[in-house]
Amino acid sequence: MQLVFERLVLDDPQNHVVSKSKYADQQALADAGETRVVFYLYQCFSRLNKVAAKLEVPDPEHQSASLTIVSQASTCLCHCEIYPGKKIPQQVFYLLQEYHAEGGHQDSLESFLKKCADCIKGRFDAEEEQVSLLEVLSHSFNLLKKKFGKVSIANRELFVLIDILKYFTKSVSMAMALLDFSTPAELVDLRSFQESLLGAPLCVSCLPRKEADPFEFFEKPSQALMNEHAITESNLWLPLKGLAVELHNLFYSLLRLSPETRNRTLTWIGHCITACSERGKLWNNQVSELFMAVQSGDGFALNLGAVLLRLARPFSEPYSPKLLKVQHQYCSFEPKSEQEANASCMHIRGLSKETCLVPREEGAASESPCGPFNFSTECFFACQRILSLGFRVVHERLARLSQDLNRVRRVYEEARSQGGDSSEVTRRLQDNMEKGMTRFLSLKAVLLEPDSLEHMLQFHVACATWLCHLATAERLDAFQPLCLPFPEHGNARLAYVPEFVIENICDCIVFVKRFSEKSLALVGPNLEHLMTLILLFMGSPQRMNNPHLRARMAEMLEVLITSADDDHFSGIIPSMNRERLFRNHPFVAELPSTLLHVFVSIEMTGQSVTFEQKFHYRRPMYIVLDHLWNMPDHRNKMKSLAAEAEANIECSSPPLFLRFINLLINDAIFLLDEALSYMSRLRELQQERQQQQPLGGPLWSQGEANMQHVGMLAHFHNVMGTETIRTLAWLTTEIKSLFCHPTMVDRIATMLNYFLLHLVGPQKKNLKVKDFSEYEFKPQELVQNICRIYTNLGCANSETAQAFCVAVSRDGRSYSPELFPQAQSVLLKIGQSILSIGVGELAEKILVCIGGPERPEPLLLPSCERWAEGPLQEDLQHLSDKCVYDSFVLESSGSSFVGFLSSDQTDPFNRSPLTMEMVTSDNDLKNKILEWRAKRMTN
């Protein structure tokens, strides 16, 4: 021991080396003269192990020498002051850096570190030493942390540093020191976790670590070709995947090492997730992305999600038996103390505040978990939570950034046309576009990393099977086959499952559709489980109360539809898998009614949303309904729903399809009317701008901003209005009698007349703007679809067609004998000659209904002044000045009546829910009106 110590304190040991041979090994001489204390002791330890490995019987002298080396190494690490100028605290890090990649040293390094760590900890626990293992290793930990804070994702040194970090997970004592060092004092501060030793490698990404840091990749994107961006993206995926794999191995080692390290690792992960919770707040996602710095923790949250997805692989298979171990009560439990949290193995806090799929019944007893929560449960919900705070948040920001870029691009093009490329405004806008594109490409690259994306899809498919089992199974100990009607055994359990579980599934599938549709091929036949999830939850408020989330599932359903372009992205076989879902899925017959239920439910009282959200939700539903209509089985199902609605049209509870039709007509009236108004306003603004353009200055800028705002509104209403009219056009090809029912026919006839008049009549010139495509205004398509609705409903030789023709003819506001010839002229111009002939035949039929080309005087004139003995003003239906022959009394009013209750199920006086059971007929008033009408008819 004394000899070893004397050797270690030598200042110039290389001058004291004695060689037995003139031709001694130079490397051996260099090792013998090593000046770095820890390096010298390790080299001795390594040589000793090599000699001992050759012995058949262990030699006590070798064991004694090994203990001496470890003891001296522990002493010098604890008391660096004994060796002044040797810089011993950092030598552990440099030792690992130098030898970790050399062959034959990995096992020796691991053994040397473990024995030294155990020796130091043993002395400290026995109070033989005042220096803890954490203090000894903190110098190396700090060096590692600093290097992680500077290393780039494209730098090979990153993986060297991770290899070094892994050595500290080889023993319980070192791992506990690592976890202690990585746990910040402020457990709610995300930045503290990012700057910790375990958090620093999680921050390495192609995204900046901090808000103000510049982006490293995709600089000057406008100066590079698209294939160059694709190459950069694929070059980033390799190190991103490697980082996730290596960090998964590191955390897996910590979890498997011992119960103590497992608990501390899960605690660290839980605190990280809790610290990330601010990322999911609504206010944090409403800032314009183009002018905002990168959000703190983007790379950190995405990398942590990639690690947890790999930890969840054992149960990321559909119907995996390990999924049965997931305890659904986890998120409802909130420990009151650290002791209770440790006893229940609960490491993620705050989940009890999350909104669940259905509200818990008042007074209902909470389900208690059976014993402490297992690892599968914690890993499942930790993975779901970090995906909600990481991937989903970044995807939403990517979508908003795309919208911002499109908006700025339009302004940039306008500025270029006005001031040229050299103006200050143009240069500033171009600079903003460059920065925005750099951010967009960087965010997209990290989200599209193929390996993590594949793990995520597999995880979500497995989650879909777990949710379906939870919602329907009577017992949870084994998966059971589903059958119709879906069982209701598990609805109460869903009160313990947070909404973010299904939100994550929807978000991932929609993201794949937008940016990587070929990735759906990775799911293959397992897409069936996503369809089952949609059919089970989308149409059932008892299983998923939030109408926004059910509408979001309709958007996910749209992703599963194949289109003509899909083969280009995903090939024939994946497209066949998706198409098969809509034809052969065992429960797909329920899809039309499920979809209609969601369509109607977002309008229901208590579940209403803003009109922009409502139409945003309904647009994918139009696409899915159109797709279903082209399949005979689904078309027949919708026709049967229509027949059922017609048979029960006066039922106290309006049938589903009747409510759907009413909402379609309401939407068409509102959207097209608004769209035409905005187009007319745009024309006025464009004319004003032409007059103000030479003036320039603030007046022109204000007009430009106003025109952009009106243009955005026009674009939105045009898109949705066109979709709604298109839906009515294909729907009326085979469903006719319901639209021609006395309660419906006047509404649809007046609507069609009104819009056709504005599109083909003298007022159509008010809709002409410079560029129809900029605002998605398609007047030709609108005229074509409106005329198709006319011919669908009115051309047949039937009573329903006759009723429709009569309704068209008695519209005194918009109909005239000149209306259809004007429409024919437009149809001929756009090449719709066959449709024009059909419209001409319909026009003749309507003229026959009214007795000739001249309009007869109506029985009841709109003005009450012409009525010598007319009814009171309150007996008129205010919107159309038509006489009402049925009168009603509402619960909340004196004398009033209902127009179309199926269209709006609310009391017009207090907006409370209203059904037919609440409406009382006023027979006296009805008889009075009928007597008056009979008298007028006689006269």
From TrEMBL:
It holds the Pfam family U-box. Ubiquitin-protein ligase that probably functions as an E3 ligase in conjunction with specific E1 and E2 ligases. May also function as an E4 ligase mediating the assembly of polyubiquitin chains on substrates ubiquitinated by another E3 ubiquitin ligase. Mediates 'Lys-48'-linked polyubiquitination of substrates. Residues 901-936 form the U-box domain. It comes from the Eukaryota. Its main location: cytoplasm. Keywords: Acetylation, Cytoplasm, Transferase, Ubl conjugation pathway. InterPro entries: Ub_conjug_fac_E4_core, UBE4, Ubox_domain, Znf_RING/FYVE/PHD. Its EC number is 2.3.2.27. Belongs to the ubiquitin conjugation factor E4 family. This is Ubiquitin conjugation factor E4 A. It comes from Ixodes scapularis (Black-legged tick). It catalyses: S-ubiquitinyl-[E2 ubiquitin-conjugating enzyme]-L-cysteine + [acceptor protein]-L-lysine = [E2 ubiquitin-conjugating enzyme]-L-cysteine + N(6)-ubiquitinyl-[acceptor protein]-L-lysine. Residues 198-831 form the Ubiquitin conjugation factor E4 core domain. GO terms for cellular component: cytoplasm; nucleus; ubiquitin ligase complex.
